[in-house]
Amino acid sequence: MRMVFRWFGEGNDFIPLEHIKQVPGVEGLVWALHDIPAGEAWPLERIKEVKRQANQYGFHIDVVESVNIHEDIKLGLPSRDRYIENYIQTIERLAEVGVKVICYNFMPVFDWTRTDLFKEMSDGSTALFFENAKISNTDPMELVKEIAENSHLTMPGWEPERLKHLTNLFRQYEGVTEEDLWNHLQYFLEKIIPVARKHDIKMAIHPDDPPFSVFGLPRIMTSKKNIERFLKLVDDRYNGLTLCSGSLGANLENNVADMVRSFSDRIHFAHIRNVKTFENGDFIETSHRSEDGTVHILDIMKAYHDVDFTGYARPDHGRHIWDEKCRPGYGLYDRALGIMYLWGIWDALNKEKEA
Ligand code: CS2
Ligand code: MN
């Protein structure tokens, strides 16, 4: 397991690289050029700049999260070919600096969706919260406004420029079914995966978060059955997964440890975090510890250990603790605690294996 840490870039993250450096066992940064709109090729100079910054602290930049996919590709519009060309150019440029894994997602319109970014917990910490009833009763436009006002910094997937066109986007998705989405994903993969293979970059799709339809939009990366189908769309190791335990764990029927065992050779990037999911479909992002949520982190780590996982891993979202001012879900403190929990389990399992 190779531990990496998500950093949103100079001026776009409150956490200095000096501080990430002090978290034990972190070898690289998970990064992206967040200001480049989906669909545009990333400029090589900008990519090299991130590499220079990271290298100053001895970090690698092997893992990119995310190179986002233009909506026209998800919608299967004729203009998609132009955006796929740009995507290919980005892959080629990332290959020039030695990137190994590209994480992306195929969720229409919204990336991760929550109803409250700072929900107070009983111990005084706050965390990302999803309230099922609120989603059903809220106009997406209202939610977008609320999220934009409360997030301190722009969140990936919730960029104001993009969301200005929200009504239009929703109109474009009218009548687009899950089957259509599968077809559009396949079309994209058939063009991209040979390029990724050529440059030895693993493509790693992130599951939908939450793993069910929101606001009536189709979502397909949601369950074991659907992940199996995804892997067969292009049956190639370079067509792989970012297995996010927290995203998938928001559906109590998903057994993430079992997925780790079943898909081990296709998992290139592990997101490991806990959530507490309630019977009514609400969920809150808890600490990483197994007993604090409904995702069995200990079992998941055991599964990764049993399959000799050598890919990249990161703690995923954390709570906001100790009065830290941070991006929602991406503070330093709780993610650092998460890392130490994951290492604790991992080291113990290593020891047990040696004995
Ligand atoms: C989120 C997403 O759960 C997560 O990791 O932070 O924003 C994630 O980065 C994207 O969906 C991946 O494309
Ligand atoms: Mn994730």
In brief:
By secondary structure, this protein is of the alpha/beta class.
Explain this structure to me?
The chain has 355 residues and is α/β, with parallel strands linked by helices. It has a single domain, classed as TIM Barrel (Alpha-Beta Barrel). It is 41% helix and 15% strand. It has helices spanning 17-21, 44-56, 71-75, 80-96, 132-137, 140-150, 160-163, 166-172, 178-198, 224-233, 245-249, 256-263, 297-306, 333-354; strands spanning 2-6, 28-31, 60-65, 101-105, 116-120, 126-130, 202-206, 239-244, 267-272, 276-277, 283-284, 312-315. The strands form two sheets. It has an eight-stranded parallel β-barrel, surrounded by four helices. Strands 5-6-11-10 form a four-stranded antiparallel sheet. Strand 5 and strand 6 form a beta hairpin. Helix 4 runs parallel beside helix 9 (178-198) and helix 13 (297-306) packs across helix 14. Manganese (II) ion binds at residues 206, 244, 246-247, 271, 316. The site of manganese (II) ion (MN) has 6 residues, from helix 11.
Which tags fit this structure?
TIM Barrel, binds D-mannonic acid, 355 residues, four-stranded antiparallel β-sheet, alpha/beta, 41% helix, 15% strand
Instruction: Going across the biggest sheet, name each strand in turn.
Output: 1-2-3-4-7-8-9-12
* Bound ligands, each once: D-mannonic acid, manganese (II) ion
What name is given to the CATH topology? TIM Barrel
Major β-sheet annotation: 8 strands, parallel, barrel
Give the proportion of residues in helices.
40-55%
What coarse outline follows from CA principal-axis ratios?
Answer: globular
Q: Give the tally of β-strands.
A: 12
Question: What CATH architecture would you give?
Answer: Alpha-Beta Barrel
**What is the end-to-end distance?**
20 Å
Give the overall pLDDT as a whole number: 95
How many distinct folded domains? Answer: 1
CA-based gyration radius: 19 Å
Low confidence ranges: none
CATH class: Alpha Beta
Along the chain, the helix and strand elements come as EHEHEHHEEEHHHHHEHEHHEEEHEH
Quickly count the helices.
14
